[in-house]
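Look at one record.

>
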Amino acid sequence: MSETHRLLQRQLKRYFGTTDLPQEWQPFLEAVNAAYQQSDGNHSGGVRS
């Protein structure tokens, strides 16, 4: 997985006590990570109306 989003890292540590989860979780974690990164990209540099 690419660099893990800060929010996802905090959530994993809070709820699981670690960021090292079973390999079976990787597709899900990658999808969540990508959504967080995309959301950040949508909000950066944008002008609110």
User: Anything to note?
Assistant: The CA atoms of residues 32 and 49 lie 28 Å apart.
